[in-house]
Structure formats: C-alpha cells, structure tokens
Specification:
Strand content of chain A: 25-35%
Number of strands of chain A: 17
CATH architecture of the largest domain in chain A: 3-Layer(aba) Sandwich
CATH topology of the largest domain in chain A: Molybdenum Cofactor Biosythetic Enzyme, Chain A
Number of domains of chain A: 3
Helix content of chain A: 40-55%
Strand order of the largest sheet of chain A: 2-1-3-8-7-6
CATH superfamily of the largest domain in chain A: MoaB/Mog-like domain
Radius of gyration of chain A: 26 Å
Largest interface: A-B, 87 and 84 residues
Structural class of chain A: alpha/beta
Oligomer: homodimer
Distance between the termini of chain A: 48 Å
C-alpha cells in the first residue's frame, strides 16, 4: 500500500514547531510495510486542504492527516475531509456524552465550539482519543482512505498505538516483528562498525542504527509469514549483536535507560536514594516517572548550593574549600552522607559543571563526578563530557548516573 | 510573495531524520515577509519531483528546495529542476576549478560523478557553498523562481545566511513582527472565546491560538511597511488581550513557564527551595535548567517516602497517619519544614497522586496539594487534576507549582 502524510497547522508553516509527527508516522508506516510516498504540510486553510487531497490520491491509496481536529474555529480538517470524501457530518452521541462528562468533572462551562468535536462524517470509523478530547477517524471513499488524527504528538501517538495501528494491520499480509536495542556508552559510528557485516550482509532481519542525545539504538526487524518465524529471526540476530556490543546494551524493550534501571531495582527490591547537584533533580525525576518506583525509591536531596551540601549531606566545609564542589572528594562525601541519612542500599551522588558559565581551565564545563555506593561497595568516577550546552550536559550526566547504577547492579548480580 | 518549501530525500520518508531545514526556512521566510503556503517532501525520485513543481507553482511564486544536489547518481534535483524550468545544463568553469582544487588539496582522485556538480542551468544565478562542495542556484522561468540548496542543515543554513537571504531581501516589501503570549490555567477553547472579536475582527495584527500539554499560546502577528509600525501594532494588541486574560499570561517572550519564573526570581533576588513528592524532582529539574539560577535556588528535597518526609522536613508522623501523605496538612508541614531547614524566602511543597495506582474514591488519581510560602505569606491549595496519565499528571502538578509561585510573586510585587 502507498501512503502520504498530510500535516495541518499554520504554526508549522511559521516554523514554530518541529514536525515530529511526520517522523513518527513515517517510521511506523514503513515498519508495517506501507510505503510513504510524500509528506505535505498546509496551514489551517480549508481551500488548500481540499485541493491537496485529490492531488495526493493520484499517487497513493491512504492519507494520514494530523492536526486541525480541535474545538476552535480554525480547526477545519474534519469538515473539509468530510466534504472532499462526499459525506455529511452527523452527531456522534458517545463523543457528545464524553465531552459533557469531561466538562462536568472539571467543573467548567461548555462553550458552543466544544460541541463541534462531537460531529463526524456519517460513514467514518471513529477512534477514541485515549489522552485528550478530540477523537480521530477513518473515512473511505471510492477505494481511497483518509485517517485523521489530532495534532498534539502525545495524543497522536497514543491514538496511533491503540487505534490506528490495529486498524492498519488488519489489511496487512506479512507479519512484521521488531525489537529496539538501546545502548549507552558507545557512539553510533563505532556501533555501526562493530555490526557492519550484520547490517550489510542481511536482507532479513534488517538492522538500522539511530542516534539520540548521547544514546544510540539498533532496530532489528523481520518480515515473515508468521509471528513465530519473525520473532525467532529477531532473537537470533539479537544474540549475535550481544556478543559484540552487549556490554553497552541497556534494554531490548525500547524503553528509556531510567525505565530499564527502575524496573531492575523494583524486581530486585533494592532501595535507592540520590544526591544531586548539577542535574538539579533530573535523576530523581526520571526514576520517579517509572510507575511502582515508590517501593524502592526513598528520596533525592537536590543540594544545589554548597550550604545545602553541608547541611543535608554533611559534606565538610573543608572539603568544599580545598577540593571544590565539583571534585571526587565532594562526590564521595555526598554519597556517604546520603547513605547515612537515607539508609538506602544504593546511594548515588553527582556534582559537575553544566555551564554555560562556571568552567575554568582546570575544571572545564562538562566535568562531572559520580559516586555510587551499593551496600559496602563504592564506585566513583570523573568524566570530561563533551560540552554541547547546558541541556545536553545535564542530560548526559543523568545518563552517566544510570550507567553507574547499571554497572553496580551487574557487578552484584 | 508566496512560497513553498520542497524537501528532497528518501531518508525523510523513512522517518530516519527530523526535517529541521523546513523549520529553519519557514521562520526565516516569514521574518522576511514571505508567506509560506506549504511544505512538501518527496523521495529521490525525479518523476515525482518534476510533477510537484508545476503543482506547487499554482499556489506560489517561489519554491525553495533542499537536498539532492550531491555528486551521486540519486542526486537529481538540479537536472529535474532545469528541465522543468525549460533550461539546459552548461559547464560552470569556476565551480569546476573549485572542485579540482578541493580534490587536489585532499590528495584524492576526482571520480567522473564529481564533475556533475560543475554543471548548472544556463540562466541560473549560482550560490557558492561556504562549507561544502555542492553549490546552490536560483532559476527563473515565466515569473516563477526556484532556489535549490544542499540538504545537510549546516551547508543549507550557511548558504541561506550568506547567499540566499541577500538574494531574497532585494525583492521584499513588508516587515513581519510577532510575539508569542504564553498562558497557563485557561483552556484553548475559553481563551479563544475571550478573544473571539479580536481574532475575527482584525486583518492585522492577526491572532492565532495554540495548545500544548496543559498550556496555551496566542501568536500576535503584524505585517507592515516598517519594523516600528509592526511592533507598535503588536504591542497595542497585546495590551487589549492582557485586559481580558492577563491573569493567565506568564510570558510574552515565547519562553517556558519555568524560564519566566526563574528569570523573575533571579531579577528580584528571591531565594527559593522546594519539597517535592509526586513530582519527584521535576520542579527542581525545570528551574535548574535556567542558566544563572544558582544565584537564588538553594535545594529541593525530593521526599518520596513518608520516612523521608518525617526525617528531612519534620512532617509529624501523626499528621501522616491522620490525614495521609496527600493532604493539605502534610503539604503545609512540608513547606514549613523546608522553610526551617533551608531558610529560603520562597518555599514550595507538593504532594499528590500521580497514578496509575494509589487512587481511591476519596483521593482519586490527579489530586494534588501545593503549599507555597513567601516570607510570612502562606498559600495552600488542593486541585483535582484531570487524570491523563502519570506523565501528564506529574507535569501538570509541576505547572501548578509554577502558577503558585507566580501568584505569590504578583501578590508581593
């Protein structure tokens, strides 16, 4: 099947937001074996939208749209698609009920424009919005199908996973199975080099590498007649990859580093606390995003000022004066002090220079010290991160913390 | 002038890379007063590219393309554009000389396909590539213009700044100026209702509303003969909007809530600490992402367990037993305890149920209490957030904390 992706939203034409929806949908459609022929973006302009649709259908059988399904008057995707596909809008009572229940719960007044969201083309298959108010829909006309989704990426992705993907899969012949292998501590170029003969020598499973903010991933994909065959092919390939780069692998489940670590901590019932300086709470924020983490996570003391390090963690003023807040000595005292106050089995500390200010020749921006203690075992390490800006530096320091936890857990397993 | 942006590259249709070129060019063209009517992406496919061009010209006078200018056999943008614009390729001697000099310097042998880059349409204006080998060009035919640029963002941006922008400015008439107004605590539909006559009654400035994860924005845009006129028109409109919905406005500078608040705290030199439970460090993480915040931010005590609340903040065990960890009483004791240990002028606490587990009929998922103290002033509030999942709930609780800080700062100003 051939498809096109049509994004609707004037904000895109102003360059105010990056169109990540198109990237997500392109990846997903390709994984289902649906070719993506082109991407298009138009503003909140019904005339241009109406003209685009027949034009795109010259070249494909399926159009996926995102955006323009909201309650406001410039949200006109539904109305325009309905007309172009020769249908009429009718009231969809379940959606109307949902909207009313939603506003009642919030104690807000329903404005007239909110009801607009309850009308749908009469022949449409309606997709509930798992995380928002605007439902999506699929509408067929003359052998061609349009699927309309909301624009906010969170809503679009949730709807795709829960509704659209199952809707698309029912027409597919082969089974596609894939796994995402997630790595930290190895660059994409080196990862590709290590796996090169597997990447080049194979038509199925295929391997594709991706990089994102300090991490990288390999997608292993197999397209076979049955699910079992595809799964077996993928698993065999993963074993081959593990033999070469297994030490950097943190997950085969396409989960974030903090999710993989959080899950392990919960499984093994290891209590954990953190003492953060430069990351400012990022480590705790990431770990507590894992549902069920309260079983093992006790506290994080974000001691940003030196005074807080002394008062909360018992870091010695002398240590700060002599070695500085960003030093191995301070990192160790932070972790040891945390151990004393929290009693958690695993205690981890971080102190570093996130920038853009605060660096020096001796201690440049990007320098970070991490100390992790598991029971009696203590592991402290300094790293000179590549300085790629405050946001990147903080995020990378957080990833280094999860790497330190991973290594301690592996050494103890 | 009306324009369209046409990206060429099969890798985009696979979702392998995010199309940041389009974002960059859209912003830049809008700033020059050139309307961007649409974005399009096609693969490395000359037929589809050739079909797109006349189609896009129905709607605009200017097309900017990126990608497909390299030396390899699938780089066919130049050849296709040349044919579509009724011109023929001729050798461009200065480019040929450059290529030969470049390869000589590198000590590499020139392969035949490298010479492909030295041929250009006979009527083209050629733009040197400041940071790569593939030059760009502009070609006019019948009152319509195509500008072709390389695909790698670094090359495209450098060429745009040094060559394309000066080329475009000579044709530009109007100046566009805009501001983004950022709101929290009002839904997009209600915001539009409050501003409806301003949105409908105006052709300049124009107002457009946007929503994202619990916040919304209004873009106020004016297109005038001079920068001063456009700025004045935008400022006058902002004043009108402020009179109606000013209480929800947190920034006119298109910055995040935490950036706006962080900046105010730094400006006014107000020290701040936080005590977080359900947000798990998100408040501190957001605030410490602001460069320079160390001047005022002291610490965040992420007291996830009850024991941590008692030990770090002096919350009474009796309070936890009687009212529960998620209660107004606990929130108040957390903030008061934090005040005692940190001495910060502004102390804020949060406790809530992020879900998906842990809710009950009396205390459902989404219930959150926030207590903020500024000097002697204390403000505590419970909110029943709409339960849209753990991530959303935690993020919304964080935004409510910034709202509480904003309100305290305003009451004191």
């Amino acid at each position: 099947m051939k498809s096109s992706i049509l994004s609707v939203g004037t904000e895109l034409l102003f360059g105010q937001i990056v169109n990540t929806n198109t990237v997500f949908l392109s990846k997903e459609l390709n994984l289902l074996g649906i070719d993506v022929m082109s991407h298009h973006t138009v503003g909140d302009n019904p005339k241009r939208l109406a003209e685009s649709i027949p034009q795109l259908f010259l070249d494909c059988d399926l159009i996926l749209t995102t955006g323009g399904l909201g309650p406001t008057q410039d949200d006109l995707t539904k109305e325009t698609v309905c007309e172009t596909m020769h249908d009429t809008l009718v009231l969809h009572q379940p959606t109307k009920d949902n909207i009313e229940a939603y506003f009642k719960e919030l104690g807000r007044t329903i404005t007239e424009n909110n009801y607009k969201q309850a009308y749908f083309p009469s022949r449409a298959v309606i997709f509930p919005n798992p995380v928002g108010t605007a439902p999506g829909f699929a509408l067929e006309d003359n052998g061609k199908t349009i699927i309309c989704m909301p624009g906010p990426p969170r809503e679009m992705k949730a709807m795709y996973e829960e509704e659209i993907k199952p809707f698309l899969i029912k027409d597919s012949e082969d089974v596609i199975h894939y796994k995402m292998l997630r790595f930290f501590g190895i660059g994409e170029a080196l990862l590709e080099t290590e796996l090169l003969d597997l990447i080049d020598g194979q038509s199925d499973p295929t391997l594709a590498t991706y990089a994102k903010e300090g991490e990288c991933s390999v997608r292993v994909t197999s397209k076979r007649k049955t699910q079992a065959e595809a799964e077996k092919a993928v698993e065999e390939m993963i074993e081959k990859a593990k033999q070469r780069v297994g030490q950097y692998l943190f997950s085969t489940e396409d989960e974030e580093f903090h999710e993989a670590i959080g899950r392990k901590l919960i499984q093994r019932g290891i209590s954990i606390s953190s003492a953060e300086s430069c990351t400012g709470g990022m480590f705790a924020e990431a770990l507590t995003s894992v549902s069920g983490i309260s079983a093992v996570f006790d506290r994080s003391l974000v001691t940003y000022s030196n005074r807080a390090k002394v008062e909360e963690l018992g870091v010695k003023q002398e240590t700060l004066d002599r070695f500085g807040a960003v030093s191995e000595e301070t990192a160790i005292e932070m972790a040891q002090g945390l151990k004393k106050v929290s009693g958690s089995r695993l205690c981890i500390s971080v102190t570093g220079i996130a920038g853009p200010e605060g660096g020096s020749h001796e201690k440049p921006v990007g320098l970070v010290y991490i100390c992790a203690i598991l029971d009696e075992k203590i592991h402290c390490k300094g790293t000179n991160m590549r300085n790629l800006g405050r946001h990147w530096n903080r995020n990378y320091a957080k990833l280094l913390m999860f790497q330190a936890v991973k290594q301690l857990l592996e050494s103890e397993a």
